[in-house]
Each structure stands twice: as structure tokens, then as C-alpha cells.
Design brief:
- The protein is α/β, with parallel strands linked by helices and 341 residues long.
- It has a domain of 205 residues: Rossmann fold (3-Layer(aba) Sandwich), CATH 3.40.50.720.
- It is 41% helix and 15% strand.
- The chain has 12 helices and 11 strands.
- The longest helix has 21 residues.
- It binds nicotinamide-adenine-dinucleotide (NAD) and 2'deoxy-thymidine-5'-diphospho-alpha-D-glucose.
- The site of 2'deoxy-thymidine-5'-diphospho-alpha-D-glucose has 20 residues, from helix 3, helix 6 and strand 8.
Length: 341
């Protein structure tokens, strides 16, 4: 039997990986991709599957109730990736768009699902950043309190709460995932790994914040997407699932930067120390992933192999990232990091 999936934000980094996974590997799945094509949404991310008879695209906003109502009709799964996703934009610009899309937008998709596809399974794609700055040696599980630090993560926490309230109040079949930092192909080069890789390949400075002592738990995007598919199939309704690599030992940003420079064959002199650019900068993220691992999930690739693979992709695909690093991107970059950076 065919499974009909409404994916929102499927032209972004993670959503497009999920769409490619569904079309390439799941022959019984049909995908409707709703994306507003903000600066982060790129139709080229899904061009490999755009010709499939099982794929359709709709250009639009998740806050548009009538549009979402039409698209959700008949869906078996609804997967909400659409969001404003970059922490530095949420702290350096007005955060209204983050609240609007990440909270109100999630609510609209939930409400339209409740009304027009009440039997659908709804997966709210969330982030480990909602747990806030995690003191060593803590690994928050899904019951841990939420302490979001940035307007971005506060808005994502809001969406988690609204989604879980829809499960409790309306009996909607909701799952919330909370994943650690993703990396891989097609990631918009504002995030640390694609920014550092593309700058290194272009012999430009790598702006390393606050001494590079901060820790993130980097996970390859394909591993995240396989975890989401597993949750849609086998996750328990009304539950939250953490997803993460559990790097051991943990990898501070300065060590990750050294790995990137080595994989690019570039010198450490490219590192440019930057202080105070991310107000409220969280020191460490980490999560307890026992719950999803009990369903049979584990990451397939370790970090050094993943970085080598990712650098190889950006080396090959200058046609993808060079056009992005002009126009709106250049303006954002110079405003954030200063002109001449
Ligand atoms: P992204 O910024 O690359 O993509 C976001 C996509 O959403 C874009 O295609 C954009 O056009 C679309 N979008 C934005 N506003 C929209 C709106 N109002 N209506 C319709 N579409 C809209 O983000 P990403 O890194 O792929 O993250 C996807 C999701 O995963 C987000 O919800 C994010 O919070 C979550 N997440 C990201 C990470 C990470 O490391 N990147 C980790 C955990 C969770
Ligand atoms: O943890 C999951 C989250 O990971 C997602 O919810 C977010 O959408 C995603 O953007 C990511 O958030 P981070 O803020 O952790 O990712 P980012 O790549 O922006 O930063 C990673 C670390 O690198 C962080 O400690 C800040 C640092 N950094 C970042 C940039 C952009 C730098 O040192 N220099 C930089 O230029």
C-alpha cells in the first residue's frame, strides 16, 4: 500500500536529504514537498528526484492555512522540517520570523492535520538545543527540563510543546524528535562545517568563536534521516526521541576545525579567532540516545570518515555552493563577521 507523506521544508538541508531518501529507497512512498524557498531553501537540493512520478513540489508557506489544509488531505505521515534554523540569525537580527515560522507555522501544520488528516502520524523535527547548555558529564534524556538559550531554540521548544499538547488534547498521533548537530552535503554555508569547509577550499579565514572549546555532537545528515524514518515506522505515539552520535571522546570545535583543515589540505593559519559574536553561546550539547537505540538505530559513519566524505562533496560541488556565496549570503556574512572577512 502506498504511504503518502507531506514533508515541509523539503528543499532545505535535512528535509531534502529525507526527501531523497524516501524517493530513492522507499518505492511505496509518495512525497508532497511544501517549501517557501527562503534563503535556505534550494530546489537544486532535490533536483535528483524532482522527475520522479512519486514526487511533487508546492511553493508555499506553512503558515498558509488553506494551502496546508489542501496539501495534508489524505496524508499518512506529516513531517515538519520547515523552520528558520540558524542561531546567529536569531540573535543578530529580529527574531520575529523564528517565532512566526517555528511556532505559529508548526501550529498551523498541526491544526490542519488534526482537521483534514486526523489519522496521520505527525513528526515534529526538533533539536537538542532545547535542553540548553548541558554541564559535563550530563546527558539529558527525553524527560529533562527544557532550557533554550537563543530565540531559535526557544521557538523550537515552543513547537515541541504545541505538538505534544496536540497529542494529549486531541489524541493526534504525534512524535517529537530532538537531534544533535547535522552535517553533510547540501548544507547552507552559514553553519559551521560547510562554512569552514568552503572558506578553507577558497583560502578564506575560518571564524572560530570563543576559543573553540565548545562541544557539539555532530551527526551525519543521512543517519538523522534514517532515524526519522524509523520513528515514523516504529516510534511510540506521543513520545519524544533524542537522536545523536554520542561522539566519544567529545569533539570541541577547535579539534573539529583541525580535522576540517587537514581534510582540505589547508594550514592552521586560516583560523581567525572571533570573540563575543554569539551572545549566550552554549558551551556543550549532549543527549542520552538510549531510547532510539533501543528501536535498533545507530549511526553508520564515524566523524572522521564523515568529514572526509563531506569535504570531498564540497570539493566536487563548487557549482552548488559558489553561486550561494554571493548576493544575500555575502550581505549576511559581511554584516555578521565584518566586511573584509
Ligand atoms: P534549513 O534552514 O536548511 O532549511 C529550512 C527549510 O525550511 C528551507 O528549505 C526553507 O525554505 C523552509 N522554510 C522556512 N520557513 C518556511 C515557511 N514559513 N514555510 C515553508 N517552508 C519554510 O534547515 P535544516 O538545517 O535543514 O533544519 C531542518 C529542521 O531540522 C529544522 O526544523 C531544524 O530546527 C531541525 N534541526 C536541524 C539541525 C541541524 O543541525 N541543522 C539539527 C536538529 C534539528
Ligand atoms: O544542535 C542542533 C542545532 O545545531 C540545530 O538545531 C541548528 O539548527 C543548527 O544550526 C545547529 O546549531 P549550532 O548553533 O550548534 O550550529 P552552528 O553550525 O551555527 O555552530 C556550531 C558551533 O560552531 C557553535 O559552537 C558555534 C561555532 N561556530 C559557528 C559558526 C557559524 C563558530 O565557531 N564559527 C562560526 O562561524
Amino acid at each position: 500500500m502506498t504511504t503518502r507523506v507531506l514533508v515541509t521544508g523539503g528543499c532545505g538541508f535535512i528535509g531534502s536529504c529525507f526527501v531523497r531518501l524516501l524517493i530513492d529507497e522507499e518505492s511505496d512512498v509518495e512525497v508532497m514537498n511544501l517549501d517557501a524557498l527562503t534563503y535556505a531553501g534550494n530546489p537544486r537540493n532535490v533536483e535528483a528526484v524532482a522527475g520522479s512520478p512519486r514526487y511533487r513540489f508546492e511553493h508555499g508557506d506553512i503558515r498558509d492555512e488553506a494551502l496546508v489544509a489542501r496539501l495534508v488531505e489524505g496524508a499518512d505521515w506529516v513531517v515538519n522540517f520547515a523552520a528558520e534554523s540558524h542561531v546567529d540569525r536569531s540573535t543578530s537580527e529580529r527574531a520575529g520570523e523564528f517565532i512566526e515560522t517555528n511556532v505559529l507555522g508548526a501550529y498551523v501544520v498541526l491544526e490542519m492535520t488534526r482537521r483534514h488528516a486526523p489519522g496521520a502520524r505527525f513528526l515534529q523535527v526538533g533539536t537538542d538545543e532545547v535542553y540548553g547548555d548541558v554541564a559535563w558529564p550530563g546527558f539529558p534524556d527525553e524527560q529533562a527540563p527544557l532550557h533554550p538559550s537563543s530565540p531559535y531554540s526557544a521557538a523550537k521548544a515552543g513547537a515541541d510543546h504545541v505538538a505534544l499538547a496536540f497529542a494529549r488534547t486531541h489524541g493526534l498521533d504525534v512524535i517529537v524528535s530532538r537531534c544533535t548537530n547535522n552535517y553533510g552535503a547540501y548544507q547552507y554555508p552559514e553553519k559551521m562545517i560547510p562554512l569552514f569547509v568552503t572558506n578553507a577550499l577558497a583560502d578564506e579565514p575560518l571564524p572560530l568563536y570563543d576559543g573553540g572549546t565548545q562541544v557539539r555532537d555532530w551527526l551525519r545528515v543521512e543517519d538523522h534521516c534514517r532515524a526519522l524514518l524509523l520513528l515514523l515506522r516504529r516510534g511510540a505515539s506521543g513520545e519524544v526521541y533524542n537522536i545523536g552520535a554520542n561522539q566519544d571522546p567529545e569533539v570541541p570545535n577547535k579539534d573539529l576545525t583541525a580535522m576540517i583543515l587537514e581534510a582540505c589540505g589547508k594550514p592552521a593559519s586560516l583560523i581567525r579567532p572571533v570573540e563575543g559574536l554569539r551572545p549566550g553561546h552554549d558551551q556543550r550539547y549532549a543527549v542520552d540516545t538510549a531510547k532510539i537505540r533501543a528501536l535498533g538505530w545507530s549511526p553508520r559513519l564515524d566523524l572522521s570518515d564523515g568529514i572526509a566524505e563531506t569535504v570531498a562533496w564540497y570539493r566536487e560541488r563548487r557549482d552548488w555552493w559558489e553561486p550561494i556565496k554571493s548576493g544575500e549570503y555575502r550581505k549576511f556574512y559581511e554584516e555578521l563577521y565584518g566586511s573584509g572577512s
